[in-house]
Amino acid sequence: MQNKRIILANPRGFCAGVDRAITIVEKALEKYGAPVYVRHEVVHNKYVVDGLKERGAIFIEEIRDVPEGAILIYSAHGVPLSVRQEAEAKNLTMIFDATCPLVSKVHVELKNLHRNQYEIIMIGHKGHPEVEGTMGQVDGGIHLIENEIDVDNLPIARDAEKIAVVTQTTLSVDETKSIIAKLKATYPNLRLPKNEDICYATQNRQDAVKELAKVCDAVLVIGSKNSSNSNRLKELAENLGVKSYLIDFDYEIQGEWLEDVTSIGLTAGASAPEVLVEGVINKLQSYGFTATDTLNVVEEHMTFALPSALRS
Ligand code: SF4
């Protein structure tokens, strides 16, 4: 009988933006002591957030909940200008910005477009903090769409001359391509981002899942339910005809998922640490998945610098 095997996607797990954001909170705790306040979950992962809470990070949604004199950190998803203004008006000791530099790049792009009087369409998920942060860089003139149907309902003339699109960084690459194709067909003058807004980590993890789906009977994605890029990995595997499950922890695995499975693919969203992957491998071994292979799709070498006050 063929050995049951685990196939690990590479790349998987932490991206450079998540690594930087978590390190900012850890270094701030080391340098200034607890508590440090973090606006929103610094990254969307329960294990990471719970670990930082234990070390003295306090996660808040509203700046009014940050006491005077505190240290404040913005999450990797970015914040609207109104949040920055509110925080800067308070007497805080220090503010660190853990916004991923690739999200900040979209902010800069958006502000330039707005300054040049473009109507801007943002493709993203309503209510996601990155979308709120990005849309909140400008005061109006920006329209959020989530799918192709929304294109039909945009209140923008088809012959608009100054019209541009930006996207959330963690979307489905394929779905976004079809939405942009429809936008281009609707708005001939549509200006596209110079470089895609969907980030390298999202692209690479989706590319790896496409390869996994070709060789596995099921795919496990480690990531939290509120993690956009993790949800896209699960959906992608399902769209390719492979059963897929999104889990935070090994103990969520259900035996029935593994019935008739001889090759199980394993990946992790950009905010899920490798220790969780190790836990899932151990659990799968107890179900008889004793062989482990790695499917290498692309090498990643991206790193982002820390704020100067936290280097050392
Ligand atoms: S998923 Fe992409 S945009 Fe988000 S933190 Fe990671 S590198 Fe940055």
Task: Describe what you observe in this structure.
Helix 8 packs parallel to helix 9 (228-239). The protein has 10 helices and 13 strands. The longest helix has 17 residues, at 16-32. It is α/β, with parallel strands linked by helices and 312 residues long. It has helices at 16-32, 46-54, 81-88, 101-115, 129-135, 148-152, 173-186, 200-215, 228-239, 274-286, and strands spanning 4-10, 36-39, 57-60, 71-74, 94-97, 119-123, 142-145, 163-167, 190-191, 218-222, 243-247, 263-268, 289-296. The model has no long low-confidence stretch (mean pLDDT 97). It is 37% helix and 20% strand. Helix 7 links the parallel strand 8 and strand 9. The chain folds into 3 domains: 4-14 and 200-296, Cobalt-precorrin-4 Transmethylase, domain 1; 16-100, Rossmann fold, CATH 3.40.50.11270; 102-191, 4-hydroxy-3-methylbut-2-enyl diphosphate reductase, catalytic domain (Cobalt-precorrin-4 Transmethylase, domain 1). A 5-stranded parallel beta sheet has the order 11-10-12-1-13, sandwiched between helices. A 4-stranded parallel beta sheet has the order 3-2-4-5. The chain is flat. The chain binds iron/sulfur cluster (SF4). Iron/sulfur cluster (SF4) binds next to helix 1, helix 4 and helix 8.
